[in-house]
Each structure stands twice: as structure tokens, then as C-alpha cells.
Amino acid sequence: LLDDLEPYLRGSRSNDLRASVHGHRGMVLTKQGELDPAKKEFQESLRFARRAHSGARQVVALQNLGANAMARGREREALRWFGKAVEIADGLGDRNRLKILRAAQGNAFSASGDWQQGSEEFAAAARLAAELGDITGEAEAWANVAACWSKLGRPEEALKLIEQSLSGPATDVSPEWRAAQLRNLGEILEQLDEPEEALLRLDEASRLAEDPELRDEALKRAAEIALAHPGIAERALDFLDRSLELQRELGTSVDVAWRAA
């Protein structure tokens, strides 16, 4: 595919087209795991987008550079790219792109451990989603706010928010999303010293998730919580046995240390 795009670069004098082609090349390289060459393509895309005076293409290139930085574990670099994209998108009045970018900034702040700023960015994304009538995006963003609040030691507030997200109209859109939120809810309930309720939510998450790795993570976390509370420690064995059975089905290595626990 990269070779197929080369003639367009050699033969075109259109800065707009060249920005688009470099962006596509960057995406192809990203899918191939070639993150450094992909960054160079996104930078070229941005350069030609600026030459074309295309604000929309600049936003896309900056967003791609931010995502590339995140994939390379460079959250601060990502925030610089995302911040520039937000400024241009705001000037263009592109509310949908702003929603996506504010959520991206929330992810970058959270990944860097700045949970407060992350929660503020996710809340901004949630408000934009509500304005646009995007019920799924709104629910996802508020659930991310709840996860940040949990990290900030505000589990009571996080509990209310995540329960609202789980009972809203977006919950049937994706079983995987609901499973992830049930996992978050289990963590919050553990913080609130309600381990039995936490096990119920993690058990539900393990049965609902379609991704085997997410199912296994929920089962192992449930076992950890059970083992940490003597009154319900015997329940850990069921979760561990289900985890081992899942690993055998997938043909992955069995964690002997877990079984010994």
C-alpha cells in the first residue's frame, strides 16, 4: 500500500493532496508498528497541511501526532500536539473533533498520573458529547471521569457517576464497554470496603466481556480481592479455577503461582 501511494506524492503539486497521502502513509506504518517512520509521515502531513492553509487537515495531522506520541509512551509530547489541535479545532468550530480531542487529552493526562486534569478533560468531552447528542460518547466520558475520581480518593462521587453511566441509554451499545465499567465499579466498591459487592460486579464483568484477556483480568482481580478479605477468601478458588480453565482454552501458559495461592 505504501508503494501504491508513492506515485501520488511524486506527481502531485497539490499541498492538500500531499498532506492527505502522507497522513495515509503514517496510518499504514502505524498499523505495521513502525511508529518512528509514522511520526515522520505525520509531520510531513502537517507541513503540507500548513502550506495548503487547511485548518481541518492540520487538526487531523496534529491528532495523529498526538496518538503516535501516546503509542510511544510520551504523554507530555502528546499533550503538546493535542493542545495545538484543540486551538485550531476550536477556531473552526468543529465541536465533534473537539470532543474527540478533549477525551484524548484526558487519556494523556491520566496516563501521566495527572488524574485531576484528566477528569476535567473527560468532563469537557462529556459535555460536548451531550451537546452533540452522542449518548455513547457522553457515557464513556463520564465513566472516565469516575475512574479519575476513584484515583483521586473520591470513591463515593465516582460510584454515583459510574452507576449513572451504567444505567443510562448507552449501556446496551457495547457489552465490552459495559464489562469494562463493571470492572471499574468493582475497583470503586473495593475502595469503599464493600468486597462482596465488588466480587459481584467483577464476576458479571468476566461473564459479559467478549475479549478473553478482559475476562481473565476480571477473574484474577476478583480472586485478589477475595484473598485480601478472610471472610470471603474461600471464594477465590472459584475465580482462580475459572481463570485457569480460560487460559487452557486459549492455549496460554498457566500461572502456577496463582493456582498455589
Q: Layout of helices and strands, plus pairs?
A:
Elements: H1 2-11, H2 15-31, H3 35-51, H4 55-71, H5 75-92, H6 95-111, H7 115-132, H8 135-151, H9 155-167, H10 175-191, H11 195-208, H12 212-227, H13 236-250, H14 256-260
Helix pairs in contact: 1-2, 2-3, 2-4, 3-4, 4-5, 4-6, 5-6, 6-7, 7-8, 8-9, 8-10, 9-10, 10-11, 10-12, 11-12, 12-13
Condensed summary:
This protein has 261 residues and is mainly alpha-helical.
**Rg from Cα:** 22 Å
Tally of separate helices: 14
Summing up helix and strand content along with how strands pair, one would put the structural category as mainly alpha
Q: Helix amount, in percent?
A: over 70%
Kindly state the mean pLDDT as a whole number?
90
Termini separation comes to 50 Å
Give the assembly state of these chains.
single chain
Number of strands: 0
Major sheet description: none
Runs in which pLDDT lies below 50 for 5 or more consecutive residues are 256-261
The portion of residues forming beta strands comes to: under 5%
The dominant shape is: elongated
Order of helices and strands: HHHHHHHHHHHHHH
